[in-house]
Design goal:
This protein has 11 helices and 8 strands. By secondary structure, the protein is α/β, with parallel strands linked by helices. Helix 2 (about 70-80) crosses helix 3 (about 95-105), helix 4 (about 125-140) runs antiparallel to helix 7 and helix 5 packs across helix 6. It is globular. An 8-stranded mixed beta sheet has the order 1-2-4-3-5-6-7-8, with helices on both faces.
Length: about 270
């Protein structure tokens, strides 16, 4: 396990090493860097894979203070600087993709390409805000905790009868997620500003989009709307039977097109 002090946090990350082009993998909400284990195993012989646990998740020692997605961006830039990496391709899933898009807007000189999984065009939704505020406020403080966990596992991973192994893999970690962690990590999502179409269209690096067709929390139509704004979109994959955590549950289906994108647009790009 590798730790590094960045912005007052003890960030935990895994670095496969090597001389290949650098990939930074940013996990989704409630997950950690291990959700990309299959991608790293397949890509590491060719690419330098760096997977980080963002604030509030995994083994990162977070200071417990409120933070925003831009703090996550700052942590990522600090990690890349410490590792001597000037340019990187980001593979971001959900929350990780929200941070990746913001990093691309603020630090365009650091990006080679973007792979966005299970993310969408921002919208203002009172229902979304209210549902997640309820989860934030009641997490760990109600007799219905099992209901919250089951609901999140169904939404993010998919039906238990189809994905029992992944339910077993993540359930204990989610049950151990305490109120403070839930409160501040959800606030980081709820407080994100709505990016304008102009901001998104300013991202000119190659972009690849991956999304589950059964992602009910992040409808694929919103992923398509986001993808349409990128001037350099290079393809999208829509996976039948996949819910939100498509990189976890359908790694075999997404690997061939993901690898093809990386080999075409990243492998021969200037190294950082």
């Amino acid at each position: 396990m590798a730790f590094i002090s960045i912005n007052g946090q003890e960030l935990h990350y895994e670095d496969s090493g090597g001389d290949g082009p650098a990939l930074l993998l940013l996990h989704g909400f409630l997950f950690d860097h291990t959700m990309f284990a299959e991608q790293i195993a397949q890509l590491a012989p060719t690419y330098r894979c760096i997977a980080v646990d963002t604030r509030g998740f995994g083994s990162t020692v977070w200071d417990g203070q409120p933070f925003t997605l831009y703090d996550v961006v700052s942590d990522c830039i600090g990690l890349l600087d410490a590792l001597g990496i000037s340019k990187v391709t980001i593979i971001g899933m959900s929350q990780g993709a929200y941070a990746a898009v913001r990093l691309a807007i603020r630090h365009p000189e650091r990006l080679v390409a973007l792979v966005l999984m299970s993310t969408r065009k921002d919208i203002l939704s009172e229902e979304f805000q209210a549902n997640y505020a309820t989860l934030r406020d009641q997490w760990g403080r109600t007799d219905n905790q099992a209901f919250f966990v089951d609901s999140l596992m169904s939404l993010l991973i998919g039906p238990r009868d189809h994905f029992e192994a992944y339910w077993q893999q993540w359930r204990a970690r989610w049950e151990a997620f305490d109120h403070q962690h839930m409160f501040h990590t959800i606030n980081a999502l709820l407080s994100k500003e709505i990016l304008t179409d102009e901001q998104i269209s300013s991202i000119t690096v190659p972009v690849f989009s991956i999304h589950g067709m059964d992602d009910h929390g992040t409808p694929v139509a919103l992923a398509d709307q986001l993808y349409a704004l990128f001037p350099n979109g290079k393809g999208k994959v829509r996976v039948a039977g996949a819910a939100h955590a498509v990189s976890l549950t359908h790694h075999a289906e997404i690997y061939p097109p993901l690898r093809a994108f990386l080999d075409q647009y990243v492998l021969n790009a200037p190294k950082g």
